[in-house]
Amino acid sequence: MSSFTLKNKSAILFDMDGVLYDSMPNHSMAWSQAMSKFGMHMTPHDVYLNEGATGHDTVIRISLRDRGYEATEQEIDDIYGYKASLFRSMPAARVMPGAPEVFRKVAAAGLKILIVTGSGQKNLIERVQRDYEGYITRDRMVTAFEVKRGKPYPDPYLKGLQIAGVPASEAVVVENAPLGIRAAVAAGIDTIAVNTGPLEDEILQAEGPAILLHSMQELADSFEKLFR
Ligand code: CA
After folding, report:
1. Do the beta carbons of residue 21 and residue 216 sit within 8 Å?
2. Could you say which of 51, 75, 99, 118 would form a disulfide bridge with 150 (CB–CB 3.0 to 4.6 Å)?
3. Spatial contact of 142 and 163, defined as CB atoms under 8 Å apart
4. Residue 93 has what DSSP assignment?
5. What's the CA gap between 32 and 42, in Å, rounded?
6. Cβ neighbours of residue 133 under 8 Å, at least 6 residues apart?
7. What is the pLDDT of residues 167-209, one digit of tens each?
8. Cβ–Cβ under 8 Å, residues 151 and 182
9. Strand, helix or coil at 194?
């Protein structure tokens, strides 16, 4: 591990899917089914590579790749709407093992907690406030509803800094997706990559995180060491 430390940090910005919830397998299945219905093809690897981007941007990217032209706004609404309805019909994703322990330790250390997600899934945005009650409120969340440009643009994380009221140098991000890490690094924030999916470590490392771990439990277990 590098010389990275949490010692001089005052806020932690958490991504949601794949970090606070083990929700990526559901997203993966929903995207794959929705895209197939509209004549496009998305593998689980594709879904993880695009993770963190808004549904809107994902449809545009895959349409260009598979069909060679941009999806219309109507199509984007139809495809993302269908994907979202499939996702809602799936069994609820479990809370990511280790994540509640991370929250307890972060709060005990006196750091501010925020959630910065590309998600526009209203049910999950509601649920996170119950599952992580006492640690997070809606006004400490940046979602698809708060920004125009999603990850990999730095906008969601810049908005998070603004809400936290801290400079980038005092913040740290916890992210599992390449585009999410790119967004955080572009916002000038030290990033802890947590590789909870099937992508190779190298793909995440290429985006320039400060450190890379493999589970939220590992982050919980190494918290004291990182705080020194
Ligand atoms: Ca994620």
Report:
1. no
2. 118
3. yes
4. P
5. 5
6. none
7. 999 999 999 999 999 999 999 999 999 999 999 999 999 999 9
8. yes
9. strand
CA–centroid distance, 15 to ligand 1, in Å, is: 6
Tell me the CA–centroid distance for residue 148 and ligand 1, in Å.
18
Residue 52 CA to ligand 1 centre (angstroms): 5
Q: Phi then psi for 157, rounded to 5 degrees?
A: -75, -35
Structure tokens at 144: 């698809």
pLDDT per position as a tens digit, 22-52: 999 999 999 999 999 999 999 999 999 999 8
Neighbour-count burial for 13-32, b at 16+ CB within 10 Å, e otherwise: bbbbbbbbbbbbebbbbbbb
Distance in Å, CA 209 to ligand 1 centroid: 14
What's the predicted TM-score (pTM) here?
Answer: 0.91
The amino acid at 23: S
Ligand 1 center to 225 CA (angstroms): 24
For residue 195, give both structure tokens.
């590789």
Distance 117 CA to ligand 1 centre (A): 7
**218 alpha carbon – ligand 1 mean position (Å):** 17
CA–centroid distance, 11 to ligand 1, in Å, is 18
| pLDDT tens per residue, range 110-126 | 999 999 998 888 888 99
| pLDDT for the residue 109 | 95
Beta bridge partners of 113: 12
